Amino acid sequence: MMDDTGSPLETPALLLAMPQVLDPFFYRSVILLLRHNDEGSYGFIINRPTEIELAEILEGMEITWQGEPTLMAFFGGPVQSQIGSVMFASESGEWLANADDEGTTEVSPGVHISQSLEDLGRLAADPPTSFRLFLGYAGWGPGQLMDEIMRNDWLTAPVLDELLFSAEPEGVWATALRSVGIDPAALPSWVPGTEVDRSN
In terms of pTM, does the model score above 0.85? Predict the structure, then answer.
């Protein structure tokens, strides 16, 4: 499928919410887009930490978290927020050799996402240095994302590995914009609750 420039929209890619996207779920969000085809699109918001500790979530699943005790889960999107997905950077090829292939997707070399409960248990017992738990995901029906891109709601950008596990998620949106040559300060600024005139 093509984006608004007529180029194929390939995945994985980043979607950067433009200032006029005032939905609180997506305001200034950066989404790691993993699938985009005729059946729809989906990905994970990578810059929206929650106030829920990862250890607390896993405790309810009878999984013991052996990593940093204050690590927070991330809001991956408004669809099926009760379902968790893990993104991790594997330093060990041996670990991947034992991973659940059907539930694991490669984002970039060395970075994977899994929805396998077995993988989650193994990662929790021996956490990699870079780890994210996403609650829910962002999803679009057939053609919906392309309509929003044509409406200039989203800008596409290549995946930058340094943004996927950023220790400062509040700065990811601005950094991603700068990576494609856009100064965030030069963009119009609205806040959720503002009505945007789309007539022009």
Answer: yes
pLDDT digits (tens, 9 = 90+) for 116-170: 888 889 889 988 888 999 999 999 999 999 999 999 999 999 999 899 999 999 9
Q: What span, in angstroms and rounded, lies between the C-alpha atoms of 125 and 66? A: 5
Q: Please tell me the distance from the alpha carbon of residue 124 to that of residue 14, in angstroms, as a whole number.
A: 27
Q: What is the CATH number of domain 54-135?
A: 3.40.1740.10
Residues 2, 118: Cα–Cα separation, whole Å: 36
* CA atoms of 70 and 132, how far apart (whole Å): 13
> What's the residue count for the chain?
200
Q: At 134, phi and psi to the nearest 5? A: -100, 135
